[in-house]
Amino acid sequence: MSIAVGHEIPVRTVTVDREGMKPMAIILRDPNPIHWDQDVLRALGLDERPVNQGPTNVAYLWDALTEWTGSVEAIKKVAVRFVSNALADEVLTAGGTVESVDSQTGEARCTVWLNHADGSPVLRGTAVVRTS
Amino acid sequence: MTASVVLRERLAGLEFPTGSLMVPAYEDWIARDTIGAPPGEDGLLHPGWTLFGALRAAGFDLERIIQLCGASWDDGVVFGETSIEQVQPLRVGVEYEVNGSFLDVQRRTGRQIAEFDVVTYEVRIEHDGETVTRCVNSFVIPRRRTA
């Protein structure tokens, strides 16, 4: 993979799977009812659409990076800040930009993001990938 | 001493009990279906398992971590940040050891939440004594809401 500073990671679009939050709660052993119980969401005064699990949002970014690099093994590090919730049925986009490339190690440092449809942030962060 | 200093003294350095992680192929399939991810490379788990595994297989589960911080889900606890290092990809069907410890507790103030603690902990997924993946996670625990 040949890349240069400023290279844009191809944008990956994903729709938050409402029903998928239920098996994901089991996978994560995450007991927080905001991911599946609309009665709790109503009682908390939140939007009635369940809140996607944060780790699933991070997984969308991994997929964008894997699609770009062509291999899971190429990704060394992903670090993100959870800025806002993604809700059931939302369409999100994941992408990023190469900020620097170490010519000796072949490692590229990138900014990465996951956005709502209006461009506001769900996740903001950085990633390090091997390019050679 | 303030409550956050007491909490930091109690938690910082506290080791989690050792946990274990083994993900069968069907479970990776279900996770990929949920994420909308393509089928995996031969024998490799979806990389999301670096964090999924750290959350579900650490010796303290999420409920216990929050409880140790003197809080509950009803307090509005949210994920703050995660930093994931992948030394090697995780593999289907491999038995991993999962170790972790609390790193820090910091009391902060903000606009939306008047006072909150940021609790940071590390989880390492290991095989044959070597670190395969390492996660540093932080949770935000509201202590006093803005009036």
Q: State the largest interface.
A: A-B, 34 and 34 residues
Shape of chain A: elongated
CATH fourth-tier homologous superfamily of chain A:
Hotdog Thioesterase
Identify the overall geometry of chain B: elongated
Helical fraction of chain B equals 10-25%
- Total strand segments of chain B: 5
CATH superfamily of chain B: Hotdog Thioesterase
Q: Which CATH architecture of chain A would you pick?
A: Roll
Structural class of chain B: alpha+beta
Using only C-alpha atoms, the radius of gyration of chain A works out to 16 Å
Describe the fold and architecture.
The complex is a heterodimer of chains A (132) and B (147). Chain A is an alpha+beta fold. Helix content of chain A is 23%, strand content 35%. Chain A is built from 3 helices and 5 strands. Chain A is elongated. The relative contact order of chain A is 0.24. The model of chain A has no long low-confidence stretch (mean pLDDT 94). Chain B is elongated. In chain B, a hairpin with a 2-residue loop joins strand 4 and strand 5 (130-145). With 147 residues, chain B is α+β, with helices and mostly antiparallel strands. The two termini of chain B are 25 Å apart. Classes of the chains: A alpha+beta (132), B alpha+beta (147). Chain A binds chain B through residues 14-15, 17, 20-21, 23-24, 27-33, 54-56, 58-60, 62-63, 66, 71-73, 75-82, and chain B through 27, 30-31, 33-38, 40-41, 44, 46-48, 51-52, 55-56, 61-63, 73, 78-86, 88-89. Strand 2 (75-82) of chain A pairs antiparallel with strand 2 (78-86) of chain B.
